[in-house]
Write a structure and sequence with these properties.
The complex is a heterodimer of chains A (about 850) and B (about 160).
Chain A lengths: L2 E6 L2 E6 L4 H7 L25 E2 L18 E3 L3 H16 L4 H4 L3 H7 L22 H8 L23 E3 L9 H10 L5 E3 L6 E3 L16 H5 L5 E3 L10 E6 L8 E7 L2 E6 L11 H11 L9 E4 L2 E4 L2 H12 L7 E6 L4 H14 L3 E5 L10 H8 L5 E4 L6 H4 L4 E6 L4 H4 L3 E4 L8 E4 L5 E4 L12 H11 L11 H8 L23 E2 L2 E2 H4 L23 E10 L2 E7 L1 H6 L5 E5 L7 E9 L4 E7 L3 H7 L6 E2 L1 E6 L10 E7 L2 H4 L1 H9 L3 E8 L8 H5 L4 E6 L6 E2 L2 H10 L7 E5 L2 H10 L8 E4 L15 E4 L2 E4 L6 E3 L5 H8 L3 H6 L15
Parallel strand pairs in A: 1-4, 14-15, 14-16, 16-17, 17-18, 30-31, 30-34, 31-32, 32-33, 34-35
Antiparallel strand pairs in A: 1-2, 3-4, 5-8, 6-7, 9-10, 10-11, 12-13, 12-18, 19-20, 21-22, 23-24, 23-28, 24-27, 25-26, 25-29, 26-27, 35-38, 36-37
Helix pairs in contact in A: 9-14, 10-14, 10-15, 22-23
Chain B lengths: L8 H9 L9 H12 L4 H11 L3 H10 L11 E6 L2 H5 L2 H12 L12 E6 L11 E3 L2 E3 L4 H12 L1
Parallel strand pairs in B: 1-2
Antiparallel strand pairs in B: 1-3, 3-4
Classes of the chains: A alpha/beta (about 850), B alpha+beta (about 160).
């Protein structure tokens, strides 16, 4: 195309005719801010951030939609443009929770808590799984002044968690349209669109269908392109920004799609298409199930050997030795190897050689997606009639009734099964990303796999096991197979695996292989059940009505759920400052929650749960009328503040509910009470009316200044301490560790006025037995559960508390539920 | 006399669409005509329109929901439209709308369970001199009050 010359910010630039002004600027290295533009998509002009001035052109055209013209003179920076962009950003951010971006304590908060909290709803960056890769956040932080004066309008839309793998939080959406546009580009017929208009507009499928029925193939392009965290990958969401990506090949079906394995700490947390084009598509398995298979919690990770009827863990050498010794006795053609057709070529090659050359037996590779029931008749017959007496199975590939006919069974596998439980030897296998080598796809093309990532514990790539086994059986020359390429060289022209009927990436319906290594994929990755993949039905559990009845439950602010629960004994003995330990189900974690209120007459207690991780999500998924398995309490030492005459009570987040009993008790005792509340934004304040009833004055502080004073509780506490008529002689602060620490530091000059803080270390039993809640107060060790939870803040070792609280950050992320909600019902209260 | 069509909805919709060239610019006129013949845009109708225009149903639904004129549920046997224009607003059309919603037990845009009444809001009827005005089955009724409106609805029902 003909080249043209134009001038941008005084610099001449030559570009191809047809380029946009934005592209021309980019060619010069001039960064014009933009959100809705993408190199893989045509211009859209939705975000209006890339406005420029062009000589002779009226108004402020968007650079992305304006074609560059010969002789054009463009300015990308001016006072007017700066103001326009700021206004645009301000409008955009008024509908996107942004308190963290204008918060004065952002830096210290992020240092204090390096990973975002795993909240149910992202009401600010500190609770957003997209924080480390958010384009919007980057643009705002890069804007000098960050003048986001418009109040945040939070639209209180429920997070959509009903679909497999993908969740959507429309409260974060800025309607840039990138998701449906990339869907349109890749698939031709987009599975989503912007529906309705005005403030009702949002991304959805027609008639709000589930994406499973909307033509979506779960390629994940919308998740990858979303600049805001609106559309997110439930599994990868809380893992933060991947630290590495590996170009590899998916081996879950014969298609062998190329993809990137996105890794963090050498673990695959997601996979991604290699580009945003039709030929780069991935299916739901490759894009979403793959990382979950690798991180399956039930992986076989130790070699097992049957001794006196039991499978016991042994060393790798012992296992190979025992397997070799056993197979040595089946060199008369009675050995069969059962493997998988979609496997590394190296693995298949060595299995083939082991079976035929070393053991003079047979081998059979099962087609992708098949299981034990698909074993060919001819093989089944040979096992029936005793021609085959020993089998080595690389998966759950043999029916139970045939197992009984065998004299020996070895299993090499990654996941446990009834078959491996009945084996004589079990070897743990590295799978997929944990291996390296080459893969031949159904079209015959050879693709690279790896480099290999660490496998769990003692798992090894299958060809390593086979090589050592062959050596044990006397094939000394197998020593030469040190690395994968040593095997690759000897393979020659191996057959391609048989293709599937329908390509999984073309459709999620009736196309995904049901099994991997003979195991039902939907058993390992339950989200796949949404696509109709078969799974083993769970055993019926007794539905006995036991536990504590939830009388009432409501979400009183985003992520904050109040529970009114029948617990007469707790209601009878509770005192202000005490807490309870709650278990959602018999097998759930024990979690402490501060008591907000109790009614001995009605036998009920009230407490507030902030949804911020696995266990709290499990509790928040319960509904009124359902039961909580265990509620124990009241625990902890009560705190009596009525000795003071004037008390300031400060509460933030869950602490707003936690200061309530003090306000009530103090008011009853005729004391003066000042309540100070803190939240990042106005829409997170709750319990305002309830507290007002028991206090002389209530002060609000918000990080974005959208309600009351812009700042934190300590600003008001200091003011009260300095005043003549409102000076408290005792204070209490309940909230996050940082809030309590900041209140402590700010009030240190008045350390004659005690500041009672409720410490919230990790707690397990809550009765002083385990010691997990150890804290240092005044140079001495205390246990928050029995000595506390209240301590004088001025004596607390805050640094130690913060580090002990962060001990299980990684485990907490891995424990996040992958089924939308843990409970049987969808989380649309 | 109730008209009964034995044709499948998808076929009927397809017959309507065939009067238009399958180009995107004809999408809205086609949707309008489909709504006229079908009474509303059902998921099947949207799928059929999308098929004809070689678009994704999600796209078609996105386009349709941008406009206030399309319905996605069957309309009532009687259609009550309450003007919410400036003049009517000043004359208390808000109270009228509240009353209608209470009487019928539905919100605007919905149809009563028995299928008798559908309720809609209008931006401006252009009959400002008659404010507050309502339209029942195509007939304009002037200077309404909740009481008058109730009588009107009762009459229509019997």
């Amino acid at each position: 195309m003909k080249e043209i010359t134009l001038t941008i910010d005084g610099q001449p630039v030559r570009v191809d005719g047809g380029a946009s002004v934005l592209e021309a600027a980019k060619a010069l290295g001039i960064e014009v801010p933009s959100i809705c533009s993408h190199p893989d998509l045509p211009a859209y002009g939705a975000c209006r951030m890339c406005v420029v001035e062009i000589e002779g052109v009226r108004g402020f055209p968007t650079a992305c939609t304006t074609p560059a013209a010969d002789g054009m003179v463009v300015r990308t920076e001016s006072e007017t443009l700066r103001r326009l962009r700021e206004n645009t950003l301000e409008l955009m951010m008024s509908g996107h929770p942004n308190a963290c971006l204008v918060c004065d304590y952002r830096a210290v908060c992020e240092k204090h808590k390096p990973t975002p909290s795993k909240a149910g709803t992202s009401t600010r960056c500190g609770l957003c799984g997209n924080r480390s890769e958010c384009d919007l956040r980057e643009i705002v932080l890069a804007t000098p002044g960050r003048n986001l004066g418009l109040p945040t309008i939070y639209s209180h839309k429920k997070v959509e968690r009903d679909d497999p793998f993908i969740e959507r939080d429309h409260n974060l959406c800025i309607l840039c349209g990138l998701c449906w546009r990339i869907c349109d580009k890749i698939h031709g017929q987009p599975a989503i669109s912007i529906v309705r208009r005005g403030k009702e507009a949002r991304i959805a499928a027609s008639f709000d269908r589930s994406w499973v029925d909307s033509g979506c193939t779960f390629c994940g392009a919308c998740v990858d392109i979303c600049p805001t965290g609106t559309i997110s990958d439930r599994f990868a969401k809380w893992h933060g920004h991947p630290d590495n990506k590996i170009l590899s090949t998916c081996m879950l079906c014969p298609e062998g799609c190329s993809f990137y394995e996105m890794t963090e700490n050498n673990q695959v947390v997601a996979t991604r298409m290699t580009g945003f084009a039709a030929e780069d598509r991935l299916c739901a398995l490759g894009r979403f199930a793959y990382p979950q298979l690798l991180q399956d919690r039930d992986r076989i990770n130790r070699p097992l050997l049957r001794e006196s009827g039991e499978l016991i863990p042994v060393s790798q050498e012992e296992a190979v030795d025992a397997l070799g010794a056993a197979l040595d006795g089946f060199r008369d053609g009675s050995f069969l190897f059962l493997g998988n057709d979609t496997e590394l070529r190296e693995t298949k090659h060595l299995y083939r050689s082991l079976a035929t050359d070393v053991l003079k037996g047979k081998y059979h590779f099962m087609a992708a997606g098949s299981g034990a029931a698909d074993l060919p008749e001819t093989i089944a017959e040979k096992i029936e009639n005793g021609t085959i007496r020993a089998v080595l199975s690389a998966g759950d590939l043999l029916p139970a009734e045939l197992r009984e006919r065998l004299a020996f069974l070895g299993v090499i596998d990654a996941f446990p099964s009834a078959l491996s439980a009945s084996a004589d030897v079990v070897l743990p296998a590295s799978i997929l990303a944990e291996t390296t080598g080459t893969f031949r796809d159904a079209a015959g093309t050879v693709k690279g796999v790896g480099p290999a990532l660490p496998a769990p514990a003692h798992a090894r790539p299958e060809w390593h096991w086979v090589r050592d086994l062959a050596q044990r059986l006397g094939a000394d020359d197998w020593r030469r197979y040190r690395y994968a390429p040593d095997v690759t060289r000897t393979i020659g022209d191996d057959p391609a695996p048989a293709p599937l009927r329908t390509r999984p990436r073309d459709s999620v319906k009736d196309a995904l292989p049901a099994r991997f290594r003979g195991h039902l994929l939907a058993d390992r990755v339950p989200a796949l059940r949404a696509f109709g993949l078969p799974f083993t039905p769970p055993e019926a559990t007794a539905t006995e009505k036991r536990g504590f009845l939830i009388r009432r439950k409501e979400e009183i602010a985003p992520n904050f759920h109040s529970f009114l629960v029948e617990a007469p004994e707790i209601a009878r003995y509770a005192r202000p400052g005490q807490f309870i330990m709650v278990m959602a189900a018999e097998t759930s974690e024990r979690v402490p929650f501060t008591l907000t209120d109790w009614d001995p007459e009605n036998g009920t207690i009230l407490f507030i749960i902030e949804e911020t991780g696995r266990s709290s999500r499990e509790l928040c998924a319960l509904r009124a009328g359902e039961r909580i398995a265990h509620v124990s309490g009241p625990l902890g030492a009560p705190l009596d503040l009525t000795g003071a005459n004037t008390v300031a009570l400060a509460g933030g987040c869950y602490g707003i509910g936690a200061i309530y009993p003090f306000a009530k008790a103090l008011h009853k005792a005729g004391k003066r009470v000042f309540v100070v509340l803190e939240a990042s934004s106005h829409f997170l304040i709750y319990f305002e009316d309830e507290l007002r009833e028991f206090c002389e004055a209530i002060y609000f502080t918000t990080r974005d200044g959208s309600m009351g004073r812009r700042g934190a509780v300590h600003d008001v506490l200091v003011e009260l301490l300095q005043s003549d008529d409102k000076r408290p002689d005792a204070m209490a602060a309940i909230g996050c560790t940082l809030m309590m620490q900041m209140a402590t530091e700010a009030t240190r000059p008045w350390s004659d006025v005690p500041l009672h803080v409720a410490l919230n270390p990790i707690m397990i039993d809550g009765t002083g037995m385990c010691g997990a809640c150890r804290v240092s107060v005044g140079g001495e060790t205390s246990f928050a559960c029995v000595d506390g939870p209240f301590f004088d803040g001025h004596e607390v070792d805050w640094a130690e508390l913060a580090s002990r609280r962060g001990a299980f950050v990684q485990v907490e992320v891995e424990a996040m539920p992958q089924n939308g909600t843990l409970a049987a019902h969808a989380c649309r209260h | 006399m109730i008209e009964v069509s034995l044709a499948r909805p998808a076929d009927r919709v397809h017959d309507v669409c065939r009067r238009y060239a399958p180009d995107r610019e004809n999408l809205i006129p086609a949707l309008q005509e489909v709504q006229e013949t079908e009474g509303f845009l059902s998921p099947e109708a949207v799928d059929a329109v999308a098929g004809y225009f070689r678009l994704s149903p999600n796209n078609v639904y996105g386009v349709a929901t941008f406009y206030a004129q399309f319905r996605y549920r069957p309309p009532g046997r009687h259609c009550l439209k309450i003007c919410q224009g400036t003049a009517c607003h000043v004359q208390g059309s808000g109270v009228l709308l509240d009353a209608a919603q209470r009487t019928l037990g539905i919100r605007s845009g919905e149809t009563t369970v028995d299928g008798d009444f559908g309720l809609e809001e209008l931006a401006c009827l252009g009959s400002c001199a008659l404010a507050p005005a309502v339209v029942l089955d195509g007939v304009v009724h002037a200077r309404q009050t909740p009481k008058k409106l109730n009588t009107l609805l009762e009459k229509a029902r019997s």
